[in-house]
Structure formats: C-alpha cells, structure tokens
Amino acid sequence: MKKSGALVIGKKRRGENEVMTWKAPEEGWCKVNVDGACTTSCGVQVVACGGLLRNHQGTFLQGFMMKTCSTFECNNCTRHATNHARGLGDAQLWGCLLGLKTSWDFGVRKLVIETTDPTAAIVAMNHPGSLEESSKRPQERDWTMVSEIQQLLERSWEVRVTVVNRDFNVAAHALAQAALSCASGFQWLHSLPPHVLEVVLREASSGNKKVR
Length: 212
Fold this sequence. Notes:
It is a single chain. This protein has 212 residues and is an alpha/beta fold. 37% of the residues lie in helices and 29% in strands. The chain has a domain at 2-37 and 53-60 and 91-174 and 192-206: Nucleotidyltransferase, domain 5 (2-Layer Sandwich), CATH 3.30.420. Strand 4 and strand 5 form a beta hairpin. The longest helix has 30 residues, at 77-106. The chain is globular.
C-alpha cells in the first residue's frame, strides 16, 4: 500500500472465505468502479470504457460510457497486437479519468476508485513523480490523460485507488462492453441498462446492501 497525501493505492486480495463480489465503501465514502474495453480489426480500433458511482448503501448515483474509434495501418500481426494493447491501456485510463471527473462533479469528496488495471492505477495515479519516471515509455500511455488524472487528484478531496479482480468489478466491465456497441462519444447514465442493473442488484444483495 502506497500513500501520497490524500491518495492511497492498494491491491485488494481475496480472503480465504470471501465472496467474490463488489463491496460497499465505508459510511461517508462513495465508490466508483471503472473498466475499459477495446476491439481491433482490419485497421479499425474501437476504445471504450464505462463506470458507475455508488454510495456506502450501494445506491447507484451516476454512471457513464464512452467510445472512440480510430484507424491505423495494419500490415503485420505484431503491430496489430501492439495497437490493441495500447488501445486497451488507453481505455483503462479513460475509465479512471472519467470516473474521477464524474465523482467530483457529483460532489463526492471521499472516494474509492476500483479498476482491474494495475498499470492505469499505479502509473497514472502515483503522483507526481510517476509521470517523469514513466515518460521513458510514452508510447504505452496517453500522457495528456495521465496529467489530467494527476491534476484531478490534487484537488481537495480524499481518493483511494484499488486494483481488484474482475469478479469485484462486474458491473463496470458490463458497461465497458456495452459501450463498444454504442454510438461514439460520451454518455451520462442516470439509470442503468437492465442487464447492468441486474448485476448491481445482485451485488448489493450479496453484500446485504440496499439499492434504490
């Protein structure tokens, strides 16, 4: 666990008898779960992300989905794989950035953000030195997004960043996958798609929390 100012970065491990499901934050805190998705084929790459904000009671507060498309020169398998890896990395960063923005704009000042991508969590959010240290590999990340994330984290609030197994992040994963099939651009979600709402209700039930 690394702590820097109001920022805490950690990795959530499964307990011996722990149920693999989303866990509500402590009272007074909110949690935003984020995830990214990417498809790459025939020189076209689709990058998407999704996230949802819930309070300590498990109540859904706000959600989002985002999708962008780009083209690239596809002439060998290695480049295809590299582009896919970069696209997925960018998708995870977009999720973290938009998750932070969504939470701040909603008025949250004590936040847990959960992601399945340790690189996005540690590289982007281990401020401020990580940007300089990791800039040796700028081709792997969009450093404009990294800078925006770090600026958000410098605001007057408490943020805990946790890397979790996908079993703890099912709803966000479902939103990211759904975003792949949506129109390009950003969407606020004031209600959840039925299949994602079903996941949220099931997670709340498993954690003995109430969803309204």
